[in-house]
Design a protein that fits this description.
By secondary structure, the chain is an alpha/beta fold. It has 15 helices and 13 strands. Bound molecules: flavin mononucleotide (FMN) and 2-acetamido-2-deoxy-beta-D-glucopyranose (NAG) (5 copies).
Length: 443
């Protein structure tokens, strides 16, 4: 089993229900507001609203089927044509928050012989397709995201105190390249607002699922929470408070080590600083409301050098971190390969994601694989994945499961189901299962 075992066995026995019941009865004493404090910051312009309604009406029945071409070829392009990138993002969250997006109707079914199943973090994930952080920053759209077929959803990044992020515009579409550039700068409504969202969700779901599979409240699915630090916050303090406050709601916790403290060459001092940060954070976890200790993952940038990645791998092993997500967006601009002729777009400051990121993230994944093969660190592939073939490449390069974001923003809620079906077909052709192909490249 590709798992982390050890730490996860703690507290699995009778703990879950006790923990959860205690939570329910103590709720009011925790001093956190139970009301949803997130104001809907989405104010649709009359045009986008009207188009949304027309889309719904024209869509009719087909709107309900996640994989109908309606979303990819009609709804998403209309949204792109009529909104700025950030308005489009908000509109998407708005639809999902109120469950106005379609669900993958055969989520439970189309995985013949469990071809896509994979054991990770003491769990059997039903498929290796996850959503990356940054789409649902505040944990408002979790149900809709699981409904669209993801088996892993990562919310956040969440900073301790609310912060506005960078001034707008800060999100740019490069449609010809199936890419986006963002410099949101981690706008976040802060720990307490997100906790109140998660708490409401728990209180709503727990009574009818008294024995939930996970904090996803779905069989074979996991909920990840990505912790950020405030712009002016202290790295250790902010991550520690994140781990302490959000452990109860998480199946998995993620912290970002996108750039280790030294740009440039590997140096022992920065490695030990990182090891110290990671060990501290690992030690501060507590069991979640279901009695399980959430594994901790670190997320890295694709722009790190091989010595830097090696250094992160060493720190992760020493600190007994459970896994690594590879990768975040890139600050590089593969100008010769980008189709966009708009140089001003290319020159926007920020992280580039989507198709052009794939070679960088895949390379970083291969490098990390090289330095972690001897450990039980779980590698999670992310960056430019948009179809079954991409997912398969990351799996073969060593990813236990994958995440995507930009392709979902372009193609809409049908994408997870599509990637899943493509993966099943590709694996069947090879006569293999997902488990068989993980890390196949280095065999
Ligand atoms: C608009 C946007 C916001 C993002 N915000 C976050 C974030 O808050 N935290 C984080 O760890 N990653 C964030 N990411 C990075 C994604 O999680 C992912 O690592 C990256 O986009 C590469 O995957 P993709 O090519 O499939 O989009 C963000 C990406 C985008 C496009
Ligand atoms: C951050 O920005 C995104 C996109 O506009 C939005 O959905 C989200 O609500 C914002 N969060 C905060 C706290 O501003
Ligand atoms: C991610 O890490 C880098 C340095 O490692 C830091 O500059 C950045 O602020 C972090 N982002 C978040 C959201 O924590
Ligand atoms: C974009 O950046 C390149 C190199 O940094 C520079 O030569 C070019 O003039 C810039 N273009 C625009 C439109 O700013
Ligand atoms: C990701 O990359 C962006 C830009 O490359 C950087 O600002 C940010 O701190 C990184 N970390 C996370 C968690 O996104
Ligand atoms: C604890 C901490 O550093 N909080 C900061 C979070 O970010 C906002 C905006 O950048 C600051 O005003 C807070 O001081």
């Amino acid at each position: 089993m590709l798992s982390l075992g050890k730490s996860l066995k703690t507290g699995m026995g009778s703990y879950p229900l006790v923990g959860a019941k205690r939570f329910l009865s103590n709720n009011s004493k925790l001093g956190l507001k139970l009301k949803p404090t997130l104001k809907s910051s989405f104010i649709p312009s009359p045009i986008t609203f009207a188009i949304g309604l027309v889309g719904l009406a024209v869509g009719g029945y087909y709107y309900l089927d996640a994989r109908s071409a309606l979303h990819e070829y009609i709804v998403c392009p209309i949204i792109r044509a009529t909104t700025s990138a950030e308005q489009g993002h908000k509109l998407g969250i708005f639809f999902m928050k109120y469950n106005l997006t379609p669900r993958l109707l055969d989520d439970d079914i189309n995985n013949p012989d469990d071809i896509l199943g994979v054991d990770v973090f003491g769990t059997h994930l039903r498929n290796p397709i996850g959503l990356a952080a940054g789409l649902d920053k505040d944990g408002e759209a979790i149900e809709a995201l699981f409904n669209s077929g993801f088996s892993y959803v990562e919310i956040g990044s969440i900073t301790p105190l609310p912060q506005p992020g960078n001034p707008q515009p800060r999100f740019f579409r490069l449609p010809r390249d199936d890419a986006v550039i963002n410099r949101y700068g981690f706008n976040s409504s802060g720990h307490f607002n997100v906790i109140s969202n998660l708490k409401l969700r728990f209180n709503k779901l727990f009574p009818s699922h008294p024995n939930p599979y996970s904090m996803a409240f779905r069989q074979g699915k996991l909920l990840g929470i990505n912790l950020g630090k405030n712009k002016t916050g202290d790295e250790i303090e902010d991550y520690v408070s994140g781990v302490e406050r959000l452990s109860p709601y998480a199946d998995v916790l993620i912290i970002n080590v996108s750039s280790p403290n030294t740009p440039g060459l590997r140096d022992l001092q920065s490695e030990s600083k990182l090891t110290n940060l990671l060990s501290t954070v690992v030690g501060k976890r507590s069991i979640n409301l279901l009695g399980k200790l959430p594994p901790i993952l670190v997320k890295v940038a694709p722009d790190l050098t091989e010595p830097e990645l090696e250094s992160i791998a060493n720190s992760a092993k020493q600190a007994k971190v459970d896994g690594i997500i590879i990768s975040n967006t890139t600050i590089q601009r593969p100008v010769d390969k980008l189709l966009t002729t708009d140089k001003e777009l290319i020159n926007q400051t920020g992280g580039l994601s989507g198709k052009p990121l794939k070679p960088y993230s895949l390379k970083a994944l291969r490098t990390l694989r090289k330095y972690t093969k001897d450990s039980n660190l779980v590698l999670i592939g992310c960056g430019g994945i948009s179809n079954g073939q991409d997912a398969l490449e990351f799996g073969k390069a060593g990813a236990t499961f994958i995440q995507l974001y930009t392709a979902f923003a372009y193609k809409g809620p049908g994408l997870p189901g599509k990637v899943r079906d493509e993966l099943v077909d590709l694996l069947k052709k090879e006569g293999k299962t997902w488990k068989d192909i993980i890390g196949e490249d280095d065999k």
